Amino acid sequence: MDSLSSTSYYTPYAAAWLATVALFLLARRLRRSQNLNPPPGPKPWPIIGNLNLIGTLPHRSIHDLSQQYGEIMQLKFGSFNVVVGSSVEMAKVFLKTMDVNFACRPKTAAGKYTTYNYSDITWSPYGAYWRQARKMCLMELFSVKRLESYEYIRVEETNSLVKSIFESAGEEIPLKDLLSTVSLNVISRMVLGKRYLDEESNSVVSPDEFKKMLDELFLLNGVFNIGDSIPWIDFMDLQGYVKRMKTVSKKFDRFLEHVLDEHNERRKAAGEKFEAKDMVDLLLQLADDPNLDVKLERHGVKAFTQDLLAGGTESSAVTVEWAIAELLKKPEIFQKAIEELDRVIGKDKWVSEKDMPNLPYIEAIAKETMRLHPVAPMLVPRRARENCKVAGYDITEGTRVLVSVWSIGRDPKLWEKPEEFYPERFIGKEIDVKGHDFELLPFGAGRRMCPGYSLGLKVIESTLANLLHGFYWKLPKTMSENDLNMEEIFGLSTPKKIPLLTVAQPRLPVEMYRF
Ligand code: HEM
User: Fold this and answer.
1) Which cofactor does it need (predicted)?
2) Interface ipTM
3) 186 touches ligand 1 (CB under 6 Å)
């Protein structure tokens, strides 16, 4: 009784006290924001901020704005500050000097609904769970030894790509479809232990359906979902994206449950003699490890597996499709590539991964493609963990940070005739794509840099080299170089808007295509 009466006695005082504290904090925040010196940027509208300035290709809208406001600018997306760095100097600050402050990701609907509530690698916040995930990538999943041990898979799958192109010689080929089949097969065999998605195998999802699921996942992870910027209208799901996220994530879950069950059954049956042969085996073993700093739960294993499948499939196929499209516009580059391949490899051999250091022109084509068509034109968004100053400007905690590698790749101060596809610009230059040279960052840099970059690079370079070695490439008869549409669509990756149709003719002796 006593306690009840004392509670009611104190309630008005507590409410008044709370209101005073809230007012004090609000006033302090206001005072502080008035004293801040934010990066330059367009004046935001109430509620929407600057969202009215962002078109269907956000990287292009943001590039145009940065031409006006400079190498560091601040936009407002709904109620969130978004800072964009679009020069080598700014990329260095965000991804190197102050990387630790920007190594977090914003909370987005995509992270919540498509990756088991941020349990994957890409969307998990900076902290012990994410650090452990990166350690697993470095030590286990993408170690040099592990990648080498899977080389035979990459060779077999490239051979089967070459064979299927050979069988369609002279016909119009939708190249990206074939390329994503190869990368899906490579990654599926490395991660899941087999081509789960063979037409014949009894998979719960058909290969076509799975590719559609991956496209949808990539798109939804990159779209500008209004609810992420204006949280109080999130529940309305005005663009219908959240509904689509929930649908695609249900489909993935059904598939991943099936994969994990099969792997666990095999593990149980093998008992003590069990040996991990693919990445899911490794992840399940890690999930059983009592010494892990942070427990890896079943949904974590599913989220990591999905990240590996998605990261490994789409990006390399998109890049190789862009490379061939650029070459079809400039046939003289084909000629130079062929000269190098004939001289270094010869017509009686296919290109192996070990040959790549001897093929500087092919490497240059790959780099030039990634300069003009980076898969993630503004990387994956980061989030400021604390207030800080960059270039004399104040960046407040929670600000979303984009690094426009798309703008850096087109910066006339760095590249002569930046819009021109000109692989020669890399010949004799020590610029690599591994996060050291900030003028070319297709995989990002720093703590959040792509953990799969060496696998991605191997797949891109050797697929491209063998496609150029094995075939002459032409546009369909009804098309000229000027008809070739080079527009892109925006998502987490940036593929060609209109998939490339092309015609291949074998270039090597017929017996070379019998595997
Ligand atoms: C052409 C190939 C690839 C390209 C261009 C690419 C590009 C990128 C980029 C730009 C990022 C964001 C980096 C940042 O925020 O600074 C990233 C992150 C990531 N990539 Fe890749 N990637 C490729 C291949 C792969 C492969 C093969 C895998 C795995 C099998 C993979 C898995 C990931 C993961 C898990 C992250 C998130 C890392 C984190 O947030 O800590 N990627 N990738």
Assistant:
1) heme
2) 0.97
3) no
